[in-house]
Specification:
The chain is mainly β. The protein has a single domain (36-188), classed as Porin, CATH 2.40.160.20. Helix content is 9%, strand content 59%. The chain has one helix and eight strands, in the order H-E-E-E-E-E-E-E-E. Strands 1-2-3-4-5-6-7-8 form an eight-stranded antiparallel β-barrel. Strand 6 (133-149) and strand 7 (154-165) form a beta hairpin. It starts with a helix and ends with a strand. Residues 1-19 form the signal peptide. InterPro entries: OMP/PagP_B-barrel. Keywords: Signal.
């Protein structure tokens, strides 16, 4: 009797599994300009970024959440925050943070129904802690990127650019360098 129940259960399970409609995951969505219209919101950020400082020969990794609001079609303003770790050759590691307002512009040139190129400027306060000593300073960034929409409201983003911070913790008077980031944004429709 146990063998008959086991065979029936196995037959039922296998028929249920094979009856399922197997689909491939969605890799892009035809969104046009709907996500970047006036009144919409964006929330997300880069889940990791890597960079190299020219002056101090340092390597860094950061986490940068951000939120913004589209003040007109293709133009968003918002606030970017961040926390990071910088390894220092022959020294103490540096923990850093930032709080920076930003402005982002989505270019109509080169746009497709599934993606957009954008530019982002940000300026604000940066800080660092090295060996128990804290420092707060001015910083700014100029970045360019591409947002590829994988659904109607979610986009993967690839960015690269130049960042500057006037910090006394680097091996120079100021710290600057190039960086790249990979992240995501969620585009939320506003009220109409």
């Amino acid at each position: 009797m146990k063998k008959i129940i086991f065979v029936l259960a196995l037959a039922f399970t296998s028929s249920t599994l094979f009856a399922q409609d197997l689909t491939t995951p969605q890799s892009s969505a035809d969104v046009g300009s709907r996500p970047i219209q006036q009144g919409n919101w964006l929330v997300g950020g880069s889940i990791g970024s890597l960079g190299y400082s020219f002056e101090g020969e340092n390597f860094n990794i950061n986490l940068n959440p951000q939120a913004g609001y589209f003040i007109s079609d293709g133009i968003a303003i918002g606030l970017s925050a961040g926390v990071g770790l910088q390894t220092v050759k022959h020294g103490d590691n540096i923990w850093s943070y930032k709080v920076m307002p930003f402005a982002r512009y989505y270019f109509p040139e080169g746009a497709s129904s599934t993606g957009r190129f954008f530019g982002q400027l940000e300026a604000g306060i940066t800080g660092a802690e090295n060996g128990g000593v804290s420092d707060t300073s001015f910083g700014f960034g100029v970045n360019a990127g591409y947002a590829h929409f994988i659904s109607n409201t979610v986009a993967l983003e690839f960015t690269g650019g130049y960042n500057y911070s006037k910090s006394n913790h680097a091996n120079a008077e100021a710290q600057n360098g190039l960086g790249i980031a990979v992240g995501f944004q969620i585009y939320l429709p506003g009220r109409r």
